[in-house]
Amino acid sequence: MSIVEPDRSSTRKFLTVVCPCGRSLRAPVDMAGQEISCWECHRMVRVPVPRSPERAYRLIVEGVKELTEARWLIPLFLIAAALAGVLCIPYYGVPVGAAVLVLGALGYGELIRQCGIDYWDFDDWLRPGTLLQRLAVSVLFGLSLAAPMLLAPRGFGHPPRFSTLGLLAGIVAALILPVLMFLAFARDEDGPLGWGRGARLMVRYPVATLLALMLIPLGVVACELLVIAFSCWHGVFRIFLLELYPDSAYYAEQYKIPKWGNYSRPMFPDERFVHLYLRRLHQGFTFTGSLPASLAGKTAVLESPWTLELIDSDFLWLRLIYTQVIATILALFLGLQSRWLGALSTLESKRSVEASGP
Prior knowledge:
It is a single chain. This protein is mainly alpha-helical. It has two domains: about 5-45, no CATH class; about 50-350, no CATH class. About 60% of the residues lie in helices and about 5% in strands. It has helices spanning about 55-65, 70-85, 95-115, 130-150, 165-185, 195-205, 205-215, 215-235, 235-245, 250-255, 270-285, 285-295, 310-345, 350-355; strands at about 5, 15-20, 25-30, 35, 45, 185-190, 190. The protein has a three-stranded antiparallel beta sheet, with no helix packed on it. A two-stranded antiparallel ribbon has the order 4-5. Helix 2 runs antiparallel to helix 3 (about 95-115). The protein is elongated, with a radius of gyration of 25 Å.
């Protein structure tokens, strides 16, 4: 472990490095990210890169911008489409979807890993210890993403309900699991960072790390707001609210919403439906969770008291389209987070200093 003084001046010419043997060493600034030999114990000591918030910002922006390239956007869209497609499998769609999310988690980790190198290199995947570690963390990450559907109170195909404890567990998972993915996958040109170097890097850049971890909660909120806005404009907000959530007949009576109305016709929801949505949201039901989960459940819209025109196949396509939108938005935010974390992995490398300038 080496220690370096904070970068107080952009004109400094030398960095002070403390070798584990206790000897203080001096290294030219242009050797940041490289190793020097301790003249006392002859151990090779890495010269840390001076901390620079401005350089961190530039590297993060560059890493995130790469996500707009077709080579990353197309796979994100295809993973979202695969998830939406397999969820349509009756009953078994949810566990199969969980398997797709595990594969997506491996892609998430690969986005982090590829930020640290300039070329396609899979040598570190051949190390048994590294491979098992990455697979274990990816399975945990993917199953956590699928947990709301897997643990739905009424079983597969029914809307998940987020209790207070479940919501807190989700927030904790959203903060911890990306950190584990970073520690397992992050690397630079010298190889995997490892848990020690990766943890120290996050500690050195706490603001950038925290902002990256907030992307997934922000993505879920953005997704819910966009689905609400689009469904209101599309005129399907009312039928989603009444058809997807359980015990709708009871709540419709409370809010004086008549049965046997045709609520699938395009129409902007009135205040009764807005209040009902807020009440169901308070109970833990969301469109972001209910629409994907509903694809694996059996529907009988023709027998529904809420519509007189919609048929089962049309309702399936309607939910499938919205699920594709939800999955794509969440995949985009996961991709943004992975590229952001991947950019962090390069902050201690010599290559990143040369690329970003002084």
